[in-house]
UniProtKB/TrEMBL annotation:
Name by which UniProt lists this protein: C4-dicarboxylate ABC transporter
Pfam short name (any one): DctM
Function: Part of the tripartite ATP-independent periplasmic (TRAP) transport system.
Domain TRAP C4-dicarboxylate transport system permease DctM subunit: 119-551
Length: 643
């Protein structure tokens, strides 16, 4: 649903803020194991039902049934919010009884009836948040076990009556309140709160000013600022579209003012914001769910994502630099740049808080408590300064904003949980993995291409998180079974699930940026596709060469990483027709041939040795250098012929 249709006003804002505060209280009590309720231990299922009660209620309060404000619509919305609160509250209070008596398989009549009601409420909440398409997908998957026995070959499974499968979805730990919601309750909630606190206390403006100061003066500086700033903001927000609408309002006019075309400005912002979701240390909700699926620490996912993320942004910066150099675009005037000392003086505490966060994530491996401690530290420090101090109304707005963001995410995860539950109930996840491996034969590359296309198609109609969860159940086991590294396989489907944000015909990220730039969405989409071309190659590099996610000894990782950066530099430069240090890569048909040689040389240098075991890294690097030398030789000839 369009963000403008959100229900706002003091009553709703106060209700949402109060409910969010209660959710944070329960989360802190559960994660820190404070046991604030005397002689009461809240079990994990009761905790997740409590979060479901709070955030489903917020969805119905904030997202109206219809776009217009009608009395009957308001009554329906508040009634649905009350029903969600009461039903989930009932399941929270009976959480221990449910486990002891095995309600997921055999439940009394009242829990069974309430399961059907909650199932319908979750589908409706998902419709309001994501639209009809995702709601229909979740509905179809939730009912799939009823018809699984009648399905053809590869997608056939064990059938179950609807009277059993709906309570299974609601009462088991393998469906709606399974892995996705566990990740939400233990990891996502804290990091969304931290990201919101960072934005409300001025962290977004500080990092944007820092980006301006760092790279604004160089050629193409406005676009480089957009890349750095949007990457940092995207890592905090975890949402491609909201990131574009937030940072793009500043970066896109700055790019256009310094000579970038509207198409190019929109493409840069779309690529930078898309990449932010896979940029450590926060990486949106996907990384947390991934850690839960893989059963590893969140810090392990962050460390694995550092090199791929750096390669993506390095390629984007090189393309921007080459584009600006070829067209003679300069950086921003000194008068337009913030003073570094003033920027640091006003925002040094953000750097300290971020350093503490990274230390707790990587050094102490305390990913569950880290965001709460850092949020508390951030709020305490910012309250000491008048410029960043939050009033009571601002704190209310912070809680309301956080609650709305969490409610959207909870509705999506609860709905997507039906997909996980359907595969679990039918036993289909294992058979599908075997079928995919069988279809690919011994060709890992064929399986990866099939996986990339599948991820791209699903990414068109789903959020990044929804797409990842579905493919983590269906596709990731097949990739792991084929011998690929588990984290690399999961990152592979995450990256390809995001490709649709910059790839026409969907290209939601590029289309959102195009509205700010005042240009054609399709043109912006194709520009973003060209700028983000590295993202189409990058997943194949790290999934076939685990050294690029930090697996192995540093003596193995560093050479492979160095070759990957050289390869990305050549690919990005060839795409834009300008090679730093050397200069333009010619014009006309011969110029195109030069660009092809440079790009091919970059691919040969970066390509994993497992794809060409006969040549190995050394052989492919030599081949790549020969191709680059041929290209530069042709370029020199054409440049000498010019008058």
């Amino acid at each position: 649903m369009d963000a403008r249709a959100l229900r706002r006003g003091p009553v709703v804002s106060n209700l949402v803020a109060a409910l969010t505060l209660v959710a944070i209280f329960f989360a802190v009590n559960q994660i820190f194991n404070f046991r604030l309720f005397v002689d009461v231990t809240i079990l994990q299922n009761a905790y997740l039902y409590t979060l479901g009660a709070i955030f489903l209620s917020i969805v119905f309060l904030v997202y109206p049934l219809t776009a217009g404000s009608h009395r009957w619509s308001n009554v329906t919305d508040f009634a649905a919010a009350g029903a969600a609160l009461l039903i989930c509250g009932y399941f929270a209070l009976t959480g221990k009884q449910s486990l002891n008596e095995g309600w997921e398989y055999a439940q009394p009549m009242l829990p069974k009836m309430l399961s059907f009601a909650l199932w319908a409420l979750i589908i409706e909440a998902m419709r309001r948040v994501t639209g009809m398409l995702m709601a229909v997908i979740a509905l179809a998957f939730s009912l799939y076990p009823v018809f699984a026995g009648s399905m053809p070959g590869p997608i056939a499974g064990f059938s179950q009556p609807i009277g059993d499968i709906i309570p299974f979805h609601i009462l088991s730990s393998e469906s709606s309140f399974g892995i996705p919601m566990e990740a939400f309750g233990t990891l996502v909630l804290g990091f969304v709160l931290f990201g919101a606190a960072l934005q409300f206390t001025g962290g977004g403006a500080f990092f944007n000013d820092l980006a301006f100061r760092m790279v604004g003066k160089y050629r193409g500086g406005a676009a480089k600022v957009a890349t750095v700033g949007s990457g940092l903001m995207g890592s905090m927000s975890g949402s491609v579209i909201s990131n574009i609408m937030t940072t793009g309002a500043v970066s896109i006019p700055a790019m256009k003012r310094t000579g970038f075309s509207a198409n190019y400005a929109a493409g840069v912002e779309a690529c930078a914001s898309t990449g932010g979701v896979m940029m450590p240390p926060i990486m949106g909700a996907v990384a947390f769910v991934m850690a839960s699926f893989l059963g590893v620490g969140y810090a392990e996912i962050v460390l694995a994502a550092i090199i791929p993320s750096a390669l993506f942004y390095f390629g984007l910066i090189i393309q921007i630099d080459s584009y600006a150099a070829r067209r003679g675009l300069t950086g921003l005037n000194k008068s337009e740049l913030p003073v570094l000392l003033d920027t640091l003086r006003n925002g040094w505490h953000y750097i300290i808080v971020f350093a503490v966060l990274i230390w707790m994530l990587i050094g102490l491996e305390q990913e569950r408590i880290a965001p709460f401690i850092c949020t508390f530290l951030l709020l305490v420090v910012t309250q000491l300064f008048p410029s960043t101090r939050l009033s009571l109304s601002k704190i209310r707005d912070l809680l309301s904003y956080t609650g709305t963001a969490l409610a959207e995410m909870a509705a999506i995860l609860l709905g997507v949980g039906f997909i996980v539950g359907a595969f679990s109930a039918t036993g289909l996840s294992g058979t599908l993995a075997n079928d995919l491996v069988f279809l690919a034969g011994d060709g890992v590359l064929a399986l990866l291409i099939m996986g990339a296309l599948t991820s791209f198609i699903f990414g068109m109609g789903m959020t990044v998180t929804s797409c990842y969860i579905l493919l983590a159940v269906v596709l990731a086991p097949a990739l792991v079974q084929a011998g690929l590294h588990p984290i690399a396989a999961h990152l592979f489907i995450m990256y390809w699930g995001m490709v649709s944000y910059i790839t026409p015909p969907v290209a939601l990220g590029a289309f959102a940026a195009a509205t700010l730039a005042g240009t054609s969405p399709i043109r912006a989409g194709f520009t973003a596709m060209r700028l983000g071309s590295i993202i189409y190659v990058l997943p194949f590099l790290f999934v076939l060469e685990p050294a690029l996610i930090g697996v192995g000894e540093w003596s193995e990782v560093i050479p492979v990483m160095a070759l990957a950066f050289i390869g990305v530099w050549l690919i990005a430069s060839g795409t834009q027709g300008y090679l730093a240090v050397f200069g333009p890569l010619g014009h006309g048909k011969l110029g195109i041939a030069v660009q092809i040689c440079i790009i091919a040389g970059g691919v040969a240098i970066a390509i994993p040795a497992t794809l060409v075991p006969v040549f190995g890294h050394i052989g492919m690097t030599v081949l790549g250098l020969i191709l680059v030398a041929i290209g530069l030789g042709l370029c020199s000839v054409t440049m000498r012929r010019q008058p």
